[in-house]
Specification:
Length: 109
C-alpha cells in the first residue's frame, strides 16, 4: 500500500497506477535504477535496512531527488515485506529538522 504522499513524490496518479515494484521502477532515473535495485535486493536478502538517495523522472520530464529509508520485515504468511519512507529532498528546505527526526526514528524501528 502506498500513501497519497508517495504517489505525489513519484508523480503517479493513484486512480490509474497500482502500487507495485514495477510502477516504482518506471519512475526511477535510468542511471540510478541498478544501484537502487541492488540496495533493495540486499536489504531483502539480509532482512536488513536500507537508506539511499535516487532520482525520479516525473511525467513532465523534470527530475526529483528522493531519499528512501526503511527495512524488511516478515508478514503473517512468512513473506518479506519492504516498509519505509520516501522524502523529496530536491531543495535544502526539504532537509528540515522534522525530516531528520523522522529518518532517525525510522532507523530505530
Amino acid at each position: 500500500m502506498w500513501s497519497a504522499e508517495k504517489y505525489a513524490i513519484l508523480g503517479l496518479n493513484p486512480a490509474t497506477c497500482f502500487p507495485s515494484h514495477e510502477a516504482w521502477k518506471s519512475t526511477v532515473f535510468p542511471d540510478d535504477l541498478e544501484r537502487a535495485e541492488d540496495t533493495i535486493r540486499k536489504a531483502i536478502a539480509t532482512k536488513g535496512t536500507l537508506d539511499f538517495d535516487y532520482h525520479v523522472v516525473l511525467p513532465d520530464g523534470s527530475i526529483r531527488w528522493i531519499t528512501a529509508c526503511g527495512g524488511v520485515g516478515i508478514n503473517s504468511v512468512g513473506r518479506s515485506v519492504l516498509r519505509g519512507i520516501n522524502f523529496n529532498i530536491q531543495s535544502s528546505s526539504d532537509m528540515s529538522s522534522s525530516y531528520m527526526t523522522l529518518r532517525s526514528a525510522w532507523k530505530q524501528l
